[in-house]
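Progress narrative, work stream C.
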Amino acid sequence: MSAKPIIREYEQLEAIALPEQREVLVGHKENYSSLIAQAKNKKLPGAILLHGQRGIGKASFAFLLAKEIFALGGDENKSQIDEQVAQGSYPNLFILRKTPKPPKGFYSEIRITDVREIQKRMQKTRGRAGHRICIIDSIDDCNQKASNALLKILEEPPSDTIFILISHRPGSLLPTIHSRCHSYGFRTLDDEKVREITNIALGKTEHNDIDICIKLANGVPRRAIEAALFDKLSLLKDLEQWLYSNDFHSPLTHLTLAEDIVKSQAAEQVFAHDVIISYIGEQANFIAKENPINRVQLASITKLWEKANNMFASSQEYNLDKKQTLVSIFDAIIQYKQLL
């Protein structure tokens, strides 16, 4: 069977291999060992939910797991399976993603027609012995109709078929879908594992700012790779320094920073937003663990988290002034720091 052409979605980085092309698992060993043990004992659940931050390696994990399951139950050697999966030609693997939208680009969501197409293909005679696996990357992209159609499939799944659902926001899933799956949470990785994944993805080349890339990643490998691909890191360095500094800067500092972010490339703007949200999340986790009795700080950081997320979402949805959005969030961060 000939390989399918690789068409990348806009958020799939051009410089690195797709998840189905990855060959090595770095981190997340506990989840992997648990699922492989179940596969060997023929006790795999019919639906598996992998959830955690976007860019943490869930999709790569899903494809590596699928290839191992195929090898355990199929009649081909591992290298043949790996090659076919990487080329998109393994007949027992089904992938549900956003589909191309003619004449260019992609649909903004997974539609019911996409789900029905996968379902139709599953009804055909299987191409190989062993399990069939459907990877949904990601379930968050499904619109309401697609989610309902998937729920019906999960309630009455095809025989010997395993569904692997990937979610960056499990709280937004239909409770009925959640209840049909065995859930596996994915946590951020330590800096050495992030560095290892970055080296695998980009090749172990010298990068003058690799340490700041790792720091900006905050445990999320994709962010380290994105940072390493930027032509200039000075803006993100300035943002990281401003966020983590204990000094109170000139009132003009965060105004200039907001203006510089707005003037930057779209990918850098998105990255800057992620850095800001990660900083707030890190502060919240620290307070919850180290000083949980300080209710004023807990309430303040929780309010800041909600405000920043809501403002970024509203700015994107309603095309609000980006600079003013950032300035308002920076002002709120300054107020939070003054409580410390």
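Work stream C, second folded protein:
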Amino acid sequence: MDIPGIVIAALRGGSGKTIFSIGIIAALKNLGRAITPFKKGPDYIDAGWLALAAGRPCYNLDTYLIEEEQILSSFCSHANHNDIAVIEGNRGLYDCIDTEGKTSTAELAKLLNLPVILCIDCTKTTRTMAAVVSGLIQFDPDIRIRGVILNRIAGPRHESILRRSIEEYTGVPVLGAVPKLSQQSFPERHMGLVPTPEHDWAMDSINAITRVTEQNIDIQAVVGTAEKTVKDRSSADLKKEFKIDVKIDSPPREKAAIHSLPRIGIIRDSAFQFYYPENIEALKKAGAEIVFTSPLTENSFPQVDALYIGGGFPETHANTLAENKIYRNQLKNDAENNMPIYAECGGLMYLGEKLILDDVSYTMAGVLPVVFGFSRKPQGHGYTIVDIVGENPYYDVGTEIKGHEFHYSTVLEFKGEEKNLVFRMKRGNGLVNKKDGLCYKNVLATYTHIHALGTPLWANALVQNAKSYQDFVNQKPK
């Protein structure tokens, strides 16, 4: 089983690799190709754009959060039935959290045995870029850099010098040259692109960058790079070495009536949109029926056996969330009656008492004794390592989990007790005093986002809690 694919990398963040990953995926789709998009690194926003461009979910390949065996399994299973896999790297090609480079985009390319296409910002430089590309090749000869895309070209002469210099001195073909764009089709926020659900002109933006891509990048050469590069190890070899099950469909479940499955609600809308598709898939595989819900569009909270609230930007919808009193009051009532709730970041904020924005107070669900405000700078940003130090319904005490945090919100008032903060932050900021994971009854809310493939016990724990709550409700006298 050979899986053609490419890794799109850069010298640093902000070089344009997300824009061109989106454009290349959409251009390949226009050619009738079935594309499987992937994102390297902890990211929801870029992944949302890649998914929209491809017309299918974008999966995460984060070698810090997820073990190599699971990375390979996920890649093979999701890319197996499509034509080309496109993986967008993060930051610079060799960048990571240490000097060894184990969690870099380069190491992911080697693990997957895929060629790399470099997107380089050529602003105010010419021949020097040949030296840069040459240095990247020599830094790790096992990395197969098979193409370069020139970005922010000033004109034909600028392009000509760059193209001839890079191809002559490195032997790497230039697959495209994109001029400086006069119109910013992708506004940025919070160090990333605006989430796709936040505006109805997302497809207009996709179409705009696709036209730029088709006009300035040799898409057939990209296809050739993905398909014709000789692989040192085939996917079948990878599967054999790591004993990977590449079946997408899980084994048939024991026959059961649909209504007997525990129903897990997921609040998903433009306020709460940060979910790894693998997390939702993990809940389904663990035996849950998924019910999507939204306080932005629904007048009441649905009858479910558990709730999962991901991250997002509740601050941009604070007034609507506050005005939906019936929904948040029903949610609070269910939480008080021991319904299991797992919340991350934006979900944590919604479960608090209030959001304070520009001196205006917005009432939230009131499940947790916290008042949140906002800062101009990130209050938590990067990978986390968490020690579980307190009893809770989801993780055993003594367990260590890895995740990531990214938020501008800050705690203005914490009215609870620190003993109810069951996470101790070995890496990261957390909620209060290097602690996180606020636990109340069957509610656990945290700034740390987890990935289900890297924290496999999470989905089973949430589903088992949902089953217990379902049994409790069914046994209550009518």
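The two ends are 56 Å apart (CA to CA). No further action is required on this item.
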